[in-house]
């Protein structure tokens, strides 16, 4: 598969980003908010096949020693074909020297464990919507 990778946020179809996040069951917002979040991120990555956006991801970081991954998603038709791995590896390459954290969608931990992530024992979160996050399985 000839997958095109782009780190560039310009000319991204943000409606599509919101649609894909919704499609894969992740938190999604109005398209202009995704644009702002990606534009304000340290690394952004989009994957395309035949000019169709099929996946993306982003990291926020201080660029020195701390980073966090968000919005890693691959459209269902292209999952389990190595695209998630491409997204993760290319973002991680830009974060060398950083401790990288994330919170996996419940059930997706295995994907990250395969890529050398380990469960955190002291991870704490102050979520905007704590009850919902608890119900979704993110917190105690
Ligand atoms: C999680 C996700 C990004 C993985 O992308 P993908 O393109 O399907 O993954 P890949 O095909 O690159 O898989 C890479 C490896 O991880 C493994 N893997 C993928 N999903 C997995 C899962 N849920 N549990 C365990 N292993 C998994 C694959 O078997 C593969 O292993 P291999 O290298 O030994 O062959 C994708 O399934 C997705 O978008 N899911 C919905 C959104 C989501 O939950 N995102 C994560 C938010 S934290």
Task: Describe it.
The radius of gyration is 15 Å and the shape is globular. The protein has five helices and five strands, in the order βααβββαβαα. With 140 residues, the chain is an alpha+beta fold. Helix 1 packs across helix 2. Helix content is 29%, strand content 23%. It starts with a strand and ends in a 5-residue tail after the last helix. The model has no long low-confidence stretch (mean pLDDT 97). Coenzyme A (COA) binds next to strand 4, helix 3 and helix 4. The site of coenzyme A (COA) has 19 residues, from strand 4, helix 3 and helix 4. One of its GO terms (molecular function) is N-acetyltransferase activity. This is N-acetyltransferase domain-containing protein. It comes from Desulfamplus magnetovallimortis.
Secondary-structure-based class equals alpha+beta
Mean pLDDT over the full residue set: 97
Are any ligands bound, and if so which?
A: coenzyme A
Biggest sheet, open or closed, and with what strands and sense?
A: 5 strands, mixed
C-alpha geometry: globular
**Largest sheet, spatial ordering of strands:** 1-2-3-4-5
Low-confidence stretches: none
- Note the total helix count: 5
Q: What order do the SSEs take from the amino end to the carboxyl end, as H and E?
A: EHHEEEHEHH
Percent of residues in beta strands: 15-25%
